[in-house]
Specification:
CATH topology of the largest domain: Rossmann fold
CATH class of the largest domain: Alpha Beta
Structural class: alpha/beta
Number of domains: 2
CATH architecture of the largest domain: 3-Layer(aba) Sandwich
Number of strands: 13
Strand order of the largest sheet: 3-2-1-4-5-6-7
Length: 376
């Protein structure tokens, strides 16, 4: 029986939520699953899997800007992040030795590679997008990103090959910055296959992401929701030890919901208003929903995904600083919404079949799946 450690990054909740199907598949395969992490993402996973052992890892504690470029703010904190990566790596190696772990699955935690056993890195962002004025940093940033990923045995991409790719150029990487084994594993969503539900809400608004932007957007959107005349429900995205099932005083919102309760709520809505984080994109694709996206200001990844979904005529998007709910609602009719891809388990199952078949003491050589979905 394999002992597997799953460690998601604590920059938002998306890294943790998309690890939920990974953990479920490991449990289905009778693996002994251990969790590692910190912050809100660790609270979320411990709520979902209260019986699994948990290890604390050092936190990155990024500081986010109230305005301006998030990329530049992150760049200034890079020395701190590299120190955390080194400390994280030492702690992971210690956990592996003490608890005889056979495999590590890291969602964007760069320090969770191992010299002792196979380690898989999950990311949809093999290419880091920079604002135009910082393009001169592009070679250095993406070379560093590739170098850090190459320490792992394999990189799993939570996406499908074109023409069904959601991540687009985020999931591709230029060979000039370094190569490493990669595999597509399909979209990762904590949600189950949707079932028909009666519509109760026009808009379900899901707030998420870093402060202070989460609160700034809440202060902007709540008055618009109240004045719109639309049937709405608000999930504030504030993590709590026990997810609520009771609405707040006005009956139209909660602090946070478990995965099952959130899916049930979304299924009863016409559309979802949310940030354009990649895990949210995958979740809404799973449920085949219409969406209005408002990317976190300065977060180039979300800005790219929002523009991509809009260009593909899937979802309407609008910048936060000029967001107008009624304009967005009127535009919604011009977009198709996500078309649920249905179940596509073979990618993830094949990846697990491969990685779990490798004895811990054996050098790891993984297949590389090239962008068109064929194997090299």
């Amino acid at each position: 029986m394999k002992r597997v450690l799953v460690a998601p990054l604590d920059w938002g909740l998306g890294h943790a939520t998309r690890c939920i199907p990974i953990i479920r598949e490991l449990i289905r395969r009778n693996c002994d699953v251990y969790l590692a992490g910190n912050g809100d993402s660790s609270v979320l996973l411990r709520n979902e899997f209260p019986k699994l052992p948990f290890f604390s890892l050092p936190g990155y504690h990024p500081v986010y800007p109230a305005s301006g470029s998030m990329i530049w703010k992150m760049a200034l904190q890079l020395p701190k992040f590299l120190r955390v990566i080194r400390k994280e790596h030492r702690e992971i190696e210690s956990i592996i030795r003490v608890h005889q772990i056979d495999l590590v699955i890291s969602d964007n935690r760069f320090g969770c590679w191992s010299s002792l056993i196979p380690a898989v890195f999950i990311t949809h962002q093999r290419t880091i997008l920079l604002p135009p004025r910082l393009n001169w940093l592009n070679p250095w940033v993406n070379r560093l990103n590739s170098s850090l990923i190459s320490r792992f045995s394999c990189c799993w991409i939570p996406d499908l090959p074109e023409p069904m790719s959601l991540a687009g150029k985020l999931g591709l990487a230029a060979a000039k910055y370094g190569t490493y084994p990669t595999q597509y594993i399909g979209y990762l969503s904590r949600f189950d296959t949707p079932a028909p539900k009666a519509v109760r809400y026009d808009v379900v608004c899901i707030l998420s992401g870093p402060e202070p932007q989460r609160s700034i957007f809440e202060e902007m959107i709540v008055p618009q929701l109240r004045e719109s005349g639309l049937r709405y429900f608000l999930v504030r995205g504030l993590i709590v030890p026990t997810p609520s099932t009771q609405p707040n005083n006005d009956g139209n919102g909660v602090e946070f919901l478990s995965g099952d309760a959130l899916q049930n709520l979304i299924e009863q809505s016409v559309c979802v208003l949310a940030r354009s984080g990649y895990s949210t994109v995958m979740d809404l694709s799973k449920l085949g929903k219409k969406a209005i996206f408002v990317p976190t200001p300065g977060q180039t990844e979300q800005e790219y995904l929002a523009a991509r979904m809009m260009e593909m005529k899937i979802a309407f998007a609008m910048e936060q600083e000029r967001f107008d709910l009624m304009v967005a609602w009127s535009e919604l009719k011009n977009y198709t919404g996500f078309e649920s891809p249905g179940d596509h388990p073979s990618f993830l199952i094949e990846a697990f079949d491969q990685v779990l078949s490798v004895p811990p003491s054996t050098p790891v050589v993984f297949e590389t799946m090239v962008p068109d979905g064929t194997r090299a």
